[in-house]
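Follow-up to my earlier ticket, as requested here are the two runs.
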Amino acid sequence: MKVVILAGGKGTRISEESRIKPKPMVEIAGRPILWHIMKIYSAFGYHDFIICCGYKGHMIKEFFTHYYRYQTDSTFNIREGTAISHNSKVEPWRVTLADTGYDTPTAGRILRVRDYIDGDTFMLTYGDGVADVDLVKLLEFHQSHGRAVTITTTQPEGRFGAIKLDEAGIISGFKEKARKDQSWINAGYMVCSRDIFEFLGDGGEMLEAGPFEGLARQGQMAAYRHPGFWSPMDNIHDRDYLQKLWEDGKAPWKVWENAGR
């Protein structure tokens, strides 16, 4: 089954990094967050990726062009111009890098890779969020209800406390915002049938606008509730938060370690 990753946006809220690289190439622990996302899928046996490139997409292509060499011990015979590879550590990935346009909305990016998607079902996610979603249970849930699209939903951790105010504006206390008090949001990690293409129109809208609204109106969208970890990387604070989790050995999305990959 193919895994489509939307990696073409500009990432304006993390402009400190995205001025020089596409957002999916912003690094956590010395690896692009895109790599972390692919490792999550690979841990569950999904190795066939379609990356929807756009803004500074050449940097994503350069990363994969040289990835094999970077992950492999090599012996170079400079005089003869030959190279021998040893002890390759590369993952069993097949990666299609598609130029889906500089300003193309997300619906249009999916349309532009339609010809690369075979089979009746494919995975879809954003190139800027990590999670410990059980992809086996996610797929089983999708197959059980027969709708066109399943999105993973979660109640994000409350990183900010709520202030208790009276009518006069006097603070009477503070309260940590619990997850159960948060709204359910779209965390990505979606499963789609090919029926989704009927809702994308000409690709001129963001996926979360017209297409998802149309799917919802026709009862063709279901939510898989994920109670575990999820975090976006929308800004520098998010990046630093994920980096700290990794450095402390508390990165919940590192599911490939348990899978032996």
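Run two:
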Amino acid sequence: MRTKLIFGNWKMNKTIAEAKAFATEAVAFDKFAKEHGVDIGVAPTFMSLAAVKEIAPELTVAAQNCHFADHGAFTGEVAIPMLKEVGIDWCIIGHSERRTYNGETNETCNKKIHALIDNDMTVIYCCGETLEQFEKGLTKEVINTQIREGLAGCCKCCLKHVVVAYEPIWSIGTGKNASTEIAEDICSYIRSIIKDMAGEEASENIRILYGGSVKPENIRAYLGQPDVDGALVGGASLKVESFKQLIENIL
């Protein structure tokens, strides 16, 4: 049985002091979550990674991005060895905001994913369609391409280090939610692609998250779907109380 996973993506929010305050309170509810069979984690900015990990060492902490090279003339980038040095072993790759604002492609995602797996790190790989693509009925075509190109070359063993997050772009931060039926349909579809790429065992074991205006009020409905194994949460993960409610409301 796949363990539920609730992951908070803080994006460009929280100073180091604010991140420390959150991490201090997170120690208790991380323990609470684990006692109830739920995994939780957060993805702070690069500036706060070390601080959060130091205060809450048992909490899963992810970077929001990395470079595929381990060093070099890449101004403004962060290398995987730098993340590992401060105890980070998870990383989000391919978030729609990275694709939209920073030119991230399926091919660059693939390079990063293989580099992370080679360094024994876990990847949260994001996929999702725009409103225009959704309205034209292109969702599955877009998702199929993103999964097959982003995870190209990933065998069954590699996929043990991968979590997939389906985030319809039209629902991120907009207050518009994909229905539970849509979330389940696409997460099930992603699982079928993984089965075709790497076999049934890989598809049954991989965790697939839903993201997009997830709140304490709707998280239970999403996670009640058989192929939705958790949530990648933005705004609702920024406040301790709402993050705690996310956990409590799925128990």
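The only thing I checked on run two: The chain has a mean pLDDT of 96. Let me know what else you need.
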